[in-house]
Amino acid sequence: MIAFENLEVRYAATAAPALKSLTLSLESGIVGLLGPNGSGKSTLLKTLLGLLTPFRGSGTVLGVALGAPESAKLRARIGYMPEYDALIEDASAYEQVAFWGELSGLAPEAARDRAHEVLYFVGLDEARYRPVSGYSTGMRQRVKLAQALVHSPELIFLDEPTNGLDPDGRRRMLDLVLRVHAELSTGVILASHLLGDVERVADQLVILDQGQIKAAGSMAGLRKALAKRVELRFLDPLDAAQEAALADLGTVLEARNGLYDLELTEADPAGAFRWAQGQGATLVQVTPRHDRLDEVLLRALHPGEA
Amino acid sequence: MPIYAPTLPPAPDLSLGQPPPLVLMRFDFARLLRQKIGRFFGFAFLMMLLWKVARIYVDHLLHTNQAFKPMQDFAKTILTQGADFQADLLNPANYLLWFLVALVGGGLVARDTLYRVRPLMYAHPVAPKDYLLAKLGFASLLPFVILLPFALLPWAMSLLLAGTQGPVWVTAPLRLLPAMAISSALMGSLAVGASSLAATPRAGIGWVLGLVLGLGTLASMLHGLTGLQSAQALNPIVLAETWPQLLVGVQRPLLAWLPTILGTAIHIGLWTFVAARRTRPSEAVM
User: Considering CB atoms only, which of B4, B17, B30 is closest to A121?
Assistant: First the structure.
């Protein structure tokens, strides 16, 4: 779907690089582009759209080289939902979605029909004739999603799609993202600084910080790695020899009051009971630490810190 | 609770669409209709047009009706259809037209800047030159379309009343239409260039009016200081008025050919360049 090698992007020839030597290959699916504000997520999306020219390196999007003459046509195969409010305030949702459809290459009548369909798809059926200036934040985000979908792109870039939404609005928006991929077979690149959003929908993850890729891989692989994280609770505190022997089980990340946070060598928590039996310790509880994706993110962003 | 559709139907054909500049111009036209300023300007321009047509009809009556015979000599002196008459056909609409171009054209690019939709346009198959062409085309087409009946209707009515053997200048539109096209391009480029400098439509209107009036004042000052009539070539209003005069062959045009051509070329080139620089994708994504 997308591949790039040694990609470097600068906003001006003399400016510091906004993206530094990125090399990556992404398969079709829902890719979560995660990173703090200013990490280069939006810059990467704009580069993939052809709005910014790579200073160095190369890449392809849907088989078309970045900066190639046919990149204008490529944009008809991509939908883009920007982070900011790119809405025409004095027009209704229906008018502007039809307009964006026409700009993507739809005939006027087909664009109007498609605007109705796609606004119905995102749940804005009844409000579509009202000017968007009167819309709530959630409705505005859905108009932006509708304009990205109106021409049935093969790939959509969603830049912070849950910005400003309440928890219910976030859930609805993420449900829509899942439906877009599942029902329309559209590849999705979702840029967000919210780990929960990415964790909920993505099957691949790229962590960006200061214009560099800090980690990348499938969510399944990441979850598998996380499955090795356990918290062990012993009846009595371990003695020094037993604590040293914990190294046979895995890496001790934290120890406090009889609680040991471990990254197991094998993804088999039952092995901990066997180890305890062998050491003569009483293991009373093994807790899988599936909720620690945020720690993975923090470790990727700040590798030097514990 | 929103009602979600089961799913979307299959994708329509993307190869049947219109060229992006045409889509953008149509959207700007729909936006103009929403602005509801058409009633005032429509009434004003219609009254001007009716006045011109009525003058021709009165002229016809004076020449053909015996009851008006004593007035015929007087009529010949003031209602001739020579070069001055033809050039004057477009003039009265000029100031009002500049005001309309400022009101509409001032917001053309500025509104997209305010709503931040230009980066999204460039994320579609729209090239910067498509965007510029659409904005220049719309801003220039608007005054041209408004002036069109002023050039054609009096001419058609004169032909209808007097025939080709009468005092009518049969080929006048061939001279007036190019003059209108050049004047309209001048108005359009200045409006789009000024609008690209503004962050809001109101500021865009201010920029257009400020530039037109400011350049007019500057031209008058230079003219007063140097005594050179060609200094008026800085004034876009004078340039727009001069083109019909030159092309129909008025004996004493406001400006000579050279300063008019140079002034117009510099204005169109400068404002198009400004608009092109201010609407680059790099400006849009920063």
Answer: B4
